[in-house]
Amino acid sequence: MNWPAALDPKGPEAGAVSGLIWSFTELCAIIWVLVVAATLIAMTWRHAERPDPGQTSPHTERRVGWVVSSLAVVTGLTVIGLTVISYAAQQRIFGEANPTVDIDVIGHQWWWEVRYNDPDPSKTFTTANELHVPVGQLVQLNLTSIDVIHSFWVPSLMGKADLVPGRQNQLSFTAAKAGTYIGSCAEFCGLQHAHMGIRVFADSPSNFEQWKALQASVALQPATAAQKSGQAAFTSNPCASCHAIRGTDAGGTLGPDLTHLASRSTIAAGTAELNRGTLAAWIIDPQNMKPGSNMPTMKIEPSDLDHLLDYLMGLK
Length: 316
Known about the structure:
Layout: H1 12-44, H2 58-94, E1 101-108, E2 111-116, E3 125-128, E4 130-134, E5 138-145, E6 150-153, E7 160-163, E8 169-174, E9 179-185, E10 197-203, H3 205-216, H4 225-236, H5 239-242, E11 266-267, E12 272-273, H6 276-284, H7 286-289, H8 302-312
Parallel strand pairs: 1-5, 4-10
Antiparallel strand pairs: 1-2, 2-3, 5-8, 6-7, 6-9, 9-10, 11-12
């Protein structure tokens, strides 16, 4: 797993950001060293005493004017140079391109809705809190928000862009190396801002296509009596009012799509690793795991909960 590191880029867009950071840092360090050196020289350099301290020669005035003018020109050129390299980096990150994968990312308090677009409607699907992308292929993210301003950032792969209600921003990136990359919301968006994580899985193109085909399919049908009972518990409780499971009567849109819930690695937008225990804790007492979340506390009988977990953990 690759922890967030803007200075350890794993793609050309992240490389542009890293290069920009190093360029600014190195140039500013050079300027700082020169300013400190000039200050020390001015403090320690002893001038010959003059009868009239206010009197200066025309030669000295011309020299001072030349120095000041030169420094003004150098300052202007420095600012222009930084502007040019900043613009070049932004063009690399936000410029128009022909993406292989087109994804809508919609920010919610506090989770990410992820919709994979395809010219064939049967291959369009929705998931949550995790992205799978093919290594070496350009991915375009169409970013918007359903409530407040969020900011999408996976430092090792891309730059940062805001998700603004009523507006769509775009962000493109290419994962150069297979792996798992950690990101988060980078704009304070409320109580659980710190628990609004995102994971990007960079897969080989063949593995990505297999994953995509699986995600586009409807949910697996219950195979055991316990799973069938769990499906009935899901549809008869408020779960189905907020969540969708394709292939069933559950068609809620307020919460994440759970069609292939068990194929994900985390729950509650990266708050905890997904397993039977954390899923049970999330269902029974979500406010303990993520205070302020819109997931209501569910009152489910222990036997129904056990069957519900069998069903949900079977949604591969």
